[in-house]
Design a protein that fits this description.
Layout: H1 5-22, E1 30-32, E2 36-38, E3 43-50, E4 59-65, E5 71-73, H2 77-83, E6 97-99, E7 102-106, H3 109-114, E8 121-126, H4 135-138, H5 145-148, H6 169-176, E9 180-188, H7 193-202, E10 206-215, E11 231-238, E12 252-255, H8 271-281, E13 287-290, H9 297-304, E14 308-313, H10 316-332
Parallel strand pairs: 7-14, 8-9, 8-13, 10-12, 13-14
Antiparallel strand pairs: 1-3, 2-3, 3-4, 4-5, 6-7, 9-11, 10-11
Helix pairs in contact: 8-9
Bound molecules: S-adenosylmethionine.
The site of S-adenosylmethionine has 22 residues, from helix 3 and strand 14.
Length: 336
């Protein structure tokens, strides 16, 4: 059986998502091939390989998927890692990126915030980990056997990576929000919108409310069993009298998610979305802070818009990749 284009895309998107979740530190080393129909299993098999880079690709195992792109079976992560041309974990790689109005360090962004003067951040623009494998976004994980009767959906199994360890909204905001002089913008799980709105209001922010990033290319997980999740939640608020640079701007922002090939972080946000926020919620030369920088999208957007940017990423491997990204982007920019 030859897959339709729609099915091929859905199957490969599901495998991409699985790779991102299972191998957040090594995803750039992994690739996959076109789905092949397995008549005995009445399912689709997608072969995992190493990325080519001029050498023969190494076969790492196959992922078996049902017609609705739910994963039936995947090779154990440890097995795949043992076949990759690197050790299972990489050592902390490199020093901070410090330069023209930009500081990006490997470390705890909350501790770093504590050392900053009160009301010194003009825009807090951040995206803390909220545990995408937890009930917040995925409902409770459904046992695999439910999938077999075809009457219910499943969520992908497995560990999404240490970077995804959920962080308590009250704990980090208690340290960071006192430092905010202007706008605060945070991504969160859909079920956390109320919590963050309450916290922002308790910290004296005004104009508090949710916003939406609508994805034009959502991953079609379980699309036969429930509406596809095509948006992410953001909560926004500001200190009284902080200017807003928009006019008639709606609080729904429509942007494409970066493709797996473009991403170095599993939950990397679109650069144009972050650039839009930087422009709406801060002024040139203002200080933009991201304590949970991931691939440093916030910092790149801020620096491109002639703001000062400070950010931290706790995971050394992710930091190494993000620091390289920042440096590559800075090279393309004109000096300020
Ligand atoms: C949801 S991701 C951010 C993705 C980012 N918006 C992007 O576009 O790539 C959250 C990141 O925060 C990092 N993190 C978690 N706790 C941290 C902490 N205390 N300090 C710094 N980074 C932290 C995680 O390792 C993860 O990479």
């Amino acid at each position: 059986m030859i897959p339709t284009t729609e099915r091929k895309l859905a199957l490969r998107a599901a495998v991409n998502e699985w790779i991102g979740g299972s191998f957040p530190e090594h995803r750039t080393l992994l690739s996959h091939e076109a789905p092949i129909y397995e008549p005995q299993a009445d399912a689709w098999s997608v072969k995992l390989t190493t990325k080519r880079n001029g050498v023969a690709a190494l076969h790492l195992g196959s992922v078996l998927l049902a017609h609705d792109a739910s994963i039936i079976e995947a090779p154990p992560a440890a097995e795949v890692l043992s076949l990759l041309p690197v050790g299972a974990t990489s050592e902390p790689t490199r020093a901070a990126v410090t330069g023209d109005r930009l500081q990006f360090g490997c470390g705890d962004g909350i501790t770093a915030a504590e050392a900053m003067p009160d009301r010194s951040i003009d825009l807090l623009l951040t995206d803390p980990p909220y545990g995408i494998s937890q009930r917040y976004t995925c409902e409770t994980q459904v046992p695999r056997r439910l999938r077999k009767d075809g009457n219910d959906f499943i969520m992908p199994k497995g560990h999404f990576g240490d970077w995804d360890e959920a962080i308590d909204p009250h704990a980090w905001t208690a340290k960071v929000l006192p430092k905010v002089a202007g706008w605060a913008v945070t991504f969160c799980a859909q079920a956390q919108i109320g919590t963050y709105c309450d916290i922002f209001a308790e910290h004296g922010l005004v104009a508090v409310g949710p916003m939406v990033w609508q994805k034009t290319n959502p991953v079609p997980f379980n699309h036969r069993y429930k509406p596809v999740n095509a948006w992410e939640a953001i909560v926004v608020g500001k200190r009284s009298r902080t200017p807003f640079n928009g006019k008639m701007v709606h609080n729904v922002f429509v942007h494409k998610s970066p493709s797996p090939q473009q991403r170095i972080h599993p939950t990397q946000k679109p650069l144009p979305l972050m650039a839009q926020f930087v422009n709406l919620f801060s002024e040139p030369d203002g200080l933009v802070f991201d304590p949970f920088a991931g691939s440093a999208t916030t910092l790149i957007a801020a620096r491109q818009a002639a703001r000062c940017a400070i950010g931290y990423e706790l995971d050394p491997t992710l930091f190494g990749l993000a620091a390289e990204r920042v440096e590559a982007e800075i090279e393309k920019m004109l000096p300020l």
